[in-house]
């Protein structure tokens, strides 16, 4: 049982974001509800953003915001730029920048200005955490994030970027960039951070989270994330967390399957978030 409310908040002058806020029914516990930022996937479905994790899309596999609310979390499900309410109308006259073309436009206009789409996503997600933290129903010391695919990618980046994230989980969100280049696999534009490989690949990003609790799920037959790279990330992260004295703060659930969020992966992710956010 839960309540659902549509919020709107500013992220930049003249730019607002719509987000579904899901609250468990009943009185909040002392200190407020633990909270989750639920980040939607991509899937080339630009008409679907915040609504899917909030439980209003066509596929219940990805209703993870609703699921986590039913487990006692306050959940905020925002639109990322280029999705749902944050995209040009499909019938806009003389507007060729729709769908993937619009995503490419938002990426390229930032690259030539010395930034990138990932920077914008991180800014907007930090604003979402501001909103969560300002809600009287939320315990600001117990905030985490979760997402699938693009949402899993962004859950990793947000946990790395914003220390307000107490614990995070990612579903089918990343692999080694080196394996994507090796196998000529294209991805969403926010994945590409100019100059990143001068500092390290995704394994370095995950390892740098230690000792903050983080887990990921991945399918061993995911065609867009070669499993050898995924296993390498898991091994390096396990070493980093052990070296930080917190091996139990990291988990990798690699299941037999493709790019998806099956029940066993869901339960592993939800259980991890409950354990470490509510601790």
TrEMBL record:
UniProt keywords (A-Z) are:
Hydrolase
Query: Where does the Dienelactone hydrolase domain lie?
Result: 65-235
The Gene Ontology terms for molecular function here are: hydrolase activity
Is-annotated flag, keyword Lipid metabolism? no
* SUPFAM superfamilies given in the database record: alpha/beta-Hydrolases (SSF53474)
UniProt name for this protein = Acyl-CoA thioester hydrolase
Q: Which is an annotated Pfam family here?
A: DLH
Q: Which domain of life is it from?
A: Bacteria
């Amino acid at each position: 049982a839960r309540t659902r409310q549509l919020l709107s908040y500013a992220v930049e002058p003249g730019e607002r974001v719509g987000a579904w806020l899901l609250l468990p029914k009943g009185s909040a516990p002392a200190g407020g509800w633990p909270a989750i930022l639920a980040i939607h996937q991509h899937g080339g479905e630009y008409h679907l953003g915040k609504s899917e994790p909030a439980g209003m899309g066509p596929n219940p596999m990805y209703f993870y915001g609703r699921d986590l609310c039913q487990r006692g979390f306050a959940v905020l499900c925002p639109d990322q730029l280029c999705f749902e309410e944050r995209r040009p109308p499909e019938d806009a006259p003389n507007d060729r920048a729709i769908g993937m073309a619009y995503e490419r436009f938002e990426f390229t206009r930032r690259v030539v200005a010395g930034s990138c789409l990932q920077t914008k996503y991180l800014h907007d997600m930090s604003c979402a955490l501001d909103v969560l933290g300002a809600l009287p129903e939320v315990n600001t010391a117990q905030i985490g994030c979760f997402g699938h695919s693009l949402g899993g990618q962004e859950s990793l980046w947000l946990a790395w970027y914003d220390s307000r994230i107490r614990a995070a989980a990612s579903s089918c969100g990343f692999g080694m960039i080196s394996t994507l280049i090796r196998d000529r696999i294209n991805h969403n534009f926010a994945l590409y951070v100019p100059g990143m490989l001068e500092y390290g690949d995704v394994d370095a990003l995950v390892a740098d989270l230690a000792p903050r609790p983080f887990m990921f799920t991945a399918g061993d037959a995911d065609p867009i994330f070669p499993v050898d790279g995924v296993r390498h990330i898991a091994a390096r992260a396990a070493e980093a967390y052990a070296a930080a004295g917190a091996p139990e703060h990291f988990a990798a659930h690699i299941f037999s399957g493709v790019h998806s969020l099956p029940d066993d992966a869901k339960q592993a992710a939800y259980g991890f978030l409950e354990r470490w956010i509510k601790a």
